[in-house]
Amino acid sequence: MDCVVANKPKVRAQEIKKISGKQIGIMGGTFNPVHIAHLVAAEQVMTKLHLDEVWFIPDNIPPHKELALNIPAEDRANMLELATKNNPKFKVMLLELYRGGISYTIDTMHYLKKEAPENNYYLIMGSDQVNSFHTWKDADELARLATLVGIRRPGYTQEAHYPLIWVDAPDIRLSSTAIRHAVKTGTSIRYLVPDSVREYIEQRGLYRE
């Protein structure tokens, strides 16, 4: 398969200037690997808040946790590209991979607001991220630069420290950790990730150790 990082991601950093005056959802994370819960959440937020696009921005080095199994960035980016290619409103942005170092969301938002200030940005977070958002770097400023959006999870304690928009989405109890464990133990991940991602994982031999 072609390498997204070395070849051509859906949207390059330098093309941001061409995208202006839109409502843009931002979904960050390690995507190690991307799975259907990520995609369902993005679709629900996009349609319910009438966003023009959702941008998936994979971390380079996540600030709040270790990157499990040290999977190469190009593999995570390739899986995102495969997972989103059939939705023209989903874009893969590799800003944090290009920038390198620890991926702080505030740095990404500063860049986006500088390059395309006409856009309105919506930072999409799961319930666990909502609860910990106040510990993120420069959380106060980040909450001013973007509209915060939380994915509501039934039965999960949600303690928002900042104003945000709650969006209800199907309660899919799935995590990248569970996907990795399933692959390692030989359990099927069919229907848990897009088929193209499952095939990529099998072809590349990812998550077996």
From TrEMBL:
What EC number(s) does its UniProt record assign?
2.7.7.18
Q: Which domain of life is it from?
A: Bacteria
* Family membership noted in the UniProt record: Belongs to the NadD family.
Q: Kindly provide the name given to this protein in its UniProt entry.
A: Probable nicotinate-nucleotide adenylyltransferase
The GO biological-process annotations, alphabetized, read as: NAD+ biosynthetic process
Taxonomic lineage: Bacteria, Bacillati, Bacillota, Bacilli, Lactobacillales
Group of enzyme by EC: transferase
Q: Which residues form the Cytidyltransferase-like domain?
A: 26-181
Summarizing the function annotation, the protein's role is: Catalyzes the reversible adenylation of nicotinate mononucleotide (NaMN) to nicotinic acid adenine dinucleotide (NaAD).
Q: Name one GO molecular function term.
A: ATP binding
Q: Which SUPFAM superfamilies match?
A: Nucleotidylyl transferase (SSF52374)
Pfam families in the record: CTP_transf_like
Q: In which pathway does it act?
A: Cofactor biosynthesis; NAD(+) biosynthesis; deamido-NAD(+) from nicotinate D-ribonucleotide: step 1/1
> Which InterPro entries does the record associate with it?
Cyt_trans-like (IPR004821), NadD/NMNAT (IPR005248), Rossmann-like_a/b/a_fold (IPR014729)
Native source species:
Lactobacillus jensenii
Could you tell me which PANTHER family the record lists for this protein?
NICOTINATE-NUCLEOTIDE ADENYLYLTRANSFERASE-RELATED, PHOSPHOPANTETHEINE ADENYLYLTRANSFERASE
